[in-house]
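Researcher: Re-running this chain for the archive, since the previous output was lost when a drive failed. Same request as before.
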Amino acid sequence: MLPPADDAPHGRILANGRVHPVPGTPEPAPAIAIHRGRVVATGSLDDARAALPDAPVTDLRGAAVLPAFVDPHTHFHRAAILRHSFLDFETLQPGGVDEVVALVRERAAQLPRGAWIQGDSITAASLAERRLPTRHELDAATRDHPVLLRGIGKHVIAANSAALAAAGIGRETPDPPGGRIERDAAGEPTGILHERAKLRLDTSAADTVVPPVPREIRLAALRAGIAELHRLGISTIGEMVRLTEEADDLAALHAAGELGVRVGIHYRVHEGEIRLGWLRGLGIRRGLGDDRFRILGVKVSIDGWCIFRNAAVHRPYRGEPENRGILRIEPDELTRIVADANAQGLGIAVHAVGARAVDVALDAFAAAGAPTAGPWRLEHAHLDLDAPRIARIAALGLVLSAQPAFLPAYRADWEIGLEPERVEAIMPLASVRAAGIPVIIGSDQPSGPAGPLRAIAAAVTREAGGRTIGAGEAIGLAEAWEAHAALAAAVMGDTAGGSLVPGRRADLVVLDEDPFRAGARIPEAVAATMLDGRWVWQGEGRIG
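Model: Regenerated structure tokens:
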């Protein structure tokens, strides 16, 4: 059970620091006064004491204080379970297919025969062979366990023969609409399944054969995941829910007083068990809930991911003249969903990575008229986003939800599939902002790194693996921080978060170094995190 929001009855004062009520304040204040979970004053120590004469004073020893981060696009539930229960290839970092096979073999030795082995966040560019392991290679690790290894973002999976057999995927299985089954020269599935070709190996499918993770394990994973969010300085997440159990688990933690972050929910209403009619029948609309657990709207995904060459593009991928990516939904169906969701009072977020998918999204938004429940969001739009499309996004009044930490994380993947000039033009945030389009920054974890400081550094420097990608598309530090805090909070309907001006919630981070000081670097870690005026995480020795 979380302690009360105000665990200092007389309030608290943080002094001898550099307090930025909004990012990049020209003259940071030395002190901030907090009472009942809210900021009551910023300014000098005398100002803070005048506001709270009986409050204890904590010496910041020159540290910076800034608004805590809002991550508006996450798959936190899946990320937490991945790190708790599955093979996490982002952490394990195998160098080649043989190392992947060895990790699977090691896990098989720890599990009873027939138990599923699952992994996540594997990517071809991180392996020496520049490809995922085939069914036969995974069979060499184990034939006694179904093996299911998911790529970044769950857009591609690698399965062994036991998993394919369990799902009924074989030589005669046709490619479904919006998916592709890779096949060898003899026409047999290789075990690599793209997008909707996952079929019954997709845990979102109603007829999935993949066993569910027990609820007690899910809740344990979420508790550990919340502690990690605190360590990263994140106060609020926008969760993209694909299964009802994901929202149910978060709601259960909230009811038990254990939901230590604020959560805004978008339900995915395509390719899974959740449908708009079900939401309508329950009366679900934007704004239901409270400041810890709130409904925002729905999400629909149009295409796949560019690092697997599945993002829907007009210009084919490098070396693959026939490949223009995959559309996972028909344009007419998307138009219907957007219109219906808008009529139901739900916010709308549409995943569109490539330019062809962006065009489909913009057509659907244009047909829907005007938003009825918060701003419409375009998620990603990373690839081939040219000036005419940017102008159209601006004319429709959309918000762009971007993930700049992808730049350093997936540079190698992009360079495999895209010509150099297309790599340079990925994620043109400066051009988007110049067109007057609001930009919010998130992680899309576990598809990308979850640390906001990494995302902000990537947006500001465009540094990726030792070189700069599209330097002209860098944005300023204050703009990037706003996109990952105040603006993201506002887009999610939170009018009390995102800044530290009096009256706002005391959700803040402490940094050992002030990134806004002339010549300073962007720190790699948060020193302490406060939520609702109480410390939820402190680095060793930082706060008294």
